[in-house]
Amino acid sequence: MAGLALDGSNPDVSLLYDINGLAKDAPHWFDRVMEFVGEYGIIIGLALVGLAAWWSVRKRPQEAPSAVAGLMWAPLAAGLALIANIPIRGFVERPRPFRDHQGLEVLVAGKTDFSFVSDHATLTMAVAVGVFMAHRAYGAAAIGLALLEGFCRVYMGVHYPTDVIGGFALGTAVTLLLAPLAMMLLTPLTTAIANSRVGRLIRAEPAAAGRGADEACAELAESRSVGGDHGNKDLAA
Q1: How many CB atoms lie within 10 A of CB 52?
Q2: How far apart are CA 180 and CA 148, in angstroms?
């Protein structure tokens, strides 16, 4: 299996050279930015998107427990997808592209493990699909970040395009296929937390609305009390 994509006429290799060739023409500072974004930046961005999605879904009282469960599943699915990738890498044994092809601009040195499938692509897409399950708008942004991650890995010269596509497929498959079981286990947990003393972690109660409801109840109780007193006075008369 190690001989995948060795032929220079292979579209996988051609696309690799086309995308990685952009790094050769780019300023040094831009390559350093792409290196950071491809290694760490996208992952940090996904974490921020996940936090924003959590803050948003907390404001939906009825949907909050299941939505937060979906957000909890996202990183768990990514972890399981990375574990599933271990035997895949060992079976395919595809070397990194810079080991078999000359003239690539490699932005990250020291990569000695196998290339297929991309861990970064697997992780980011698994998280993105999990976020999409909980919140469509933030999920779309997360998927956009995952796609950018795939582009960065090829741009950096450390993966073939098919490594990235394989990672996207693996991350998506693990997240979606195991989602029913995960939600069945996680939703009761988030529901229990929502009904506990730390329930605001799952379901936000609008302070203003809460005060308004309390005031309305107090006014209703007072009016009933006043009405009852008048009734008693009338009966006494």
Answers
A1: 16
A2: 28
What is the DSSP secondary-structure string of 164-209? Answer: HHHHHHHHHHHHHHSHHHHHHHHHHHHHHHHTSTTGGGT----HHH
Q: How is residue 75 annotated by DSSP?
A: H
User: Rounded CA gap, 182 and 178, in Å?
Assistant: 6
Q: What tens digit of pLDDT does each residue of 191-236 get? A: 988 888 888 888 876 444 344 444 445 555 555 554 455 444 443 4
Q: Which of 100, 175, 169 is nearest to 133 (CA)?
A: 175
| pLDDT under 70: residue ranges of the chain | 1-9, 205-237
Sign, Cα dihedral of 128, 146, 161, 97? negative
Instruction: For residue 121, give the nearest of 76, 78, 84 by alpha carbon.
Output: 78
- Quickly tell me which residue has 């959590």 as its tokens: 54
Q: Residue 94: name the closest of 126, 69, 116 by CA.
A: 116
Burial of 58 (0-12, 13-18, 19+ CB in 10 A): buried
**Contacts for 127 with CB less than 8 Å, ≥ 6 apart:** 46, 50, 74, 75, 77, 78, 142, 146, 171
